[in-house]
Amino acid sequence: MSGYSFTNFKILICSAAVLMFSIPAVAGDNSAPAANITPTPAPIAVTGGSPAPATAINTAPTPKDTTATGLKIGYIDVNRIAQESNFGKEVNARLAAKAEKYKKDIAAKQRQLEKEKKAIEAQAPILTQEQRIAKAKAFDKKVSAYKRFVEAAEKDMQSMQIEAAKSIDAKIRGAAQNYGAANHYAAIVEKRELFYYDGTTEVQDITDEIIKLVDTKEQK
Questions:
Q1: Residue 153 to residues 9, 91, 94, 139: CA-CA distances in angstroms?
Q2: CA-based, 20 to 30 A from 144: which of 4, 15, 68, 160?
Q3: Long-range contacts for 172-176 (Cβ within 8 Å, ≥24 apart)?
Q4: Is the Cα dihedral 183, 187, 193, 197 positive or negative?
């Protein structure tokens, strides 16, 4: 199966760069901030005698008998299944809850850093050079810890989305195999753009049937 179109849970995070502040330059401090056309039949050449009456030529395509091969192929929209099945909705809900928690935690950490930044900037004029250097280094460590937390949150969400895709893939595969065997399908494939179809094989969209089967207790 291809990738599933789950709700995008990429955590939106304000850049840590906004947390940087300007401390008066200190000597020795080298730290850097962070168409379909029917052909017209050609005239028939006749030599001698009266011209023969024109013969009508049927150029319409001959309908194909879809029962000729006796094959059935089903196709499914995996993204619809991931979004509309109860199982898919549950997976999306868990991802949304986790992402929301991370957003709140990150926002709280950022507000705290911004508060500390303003306090240091306010104190800067009365601090000694050594005090400014010490506070700048301490703040830089907190900003670095904040960045590490954000990176870990992003990696955790990516990991959760990968696991979610694997779980819905397993559900769809199991449901498709059971449905295909029970209903005598030659194959069940993922919905894709069809470039050519000769009309001799029965092709059906069975997405709704697979959604129902995915949500049955037997599939859980």
A1: 11, 18, 15, 21
A2: 160
A3: 172/1, 172/76, 172/78, 172/81, 172/210, 172/214, 173/1, 174/219, 175/210, 175/213, 175/214, 175/219, 176/74, 176/76, 176/210
A4: negative
- Residues in the chain, overall count: 220
Retrieve residue 181's tokens.
């065997």
Could you give the domains of the chain?
A: 62-219 (3.30.910.20)
- Beta strands 202-205 and 72-76: pairing type? parallel
- Alpha-carbon distances, residue 212 vs 70, 174, 193, 215, 219 (angstroms): 26, 13, 24, 5, 10
pLDDT bin (cut points 50, 70, 90) of residue 13 is very low
**Is it the case that residue 147 has pLDDT exceeding 70?**
yes
Of 53, 57, 64, the C-alpha closest to 39 is: 57
| Pure H helices in 19-68 | none
Least confident of 25-34, 143-152, 185-194, 200-209: 25-34
pTM exceeds 0.70: no
| Structure-token match 């037997």, residue found | 218
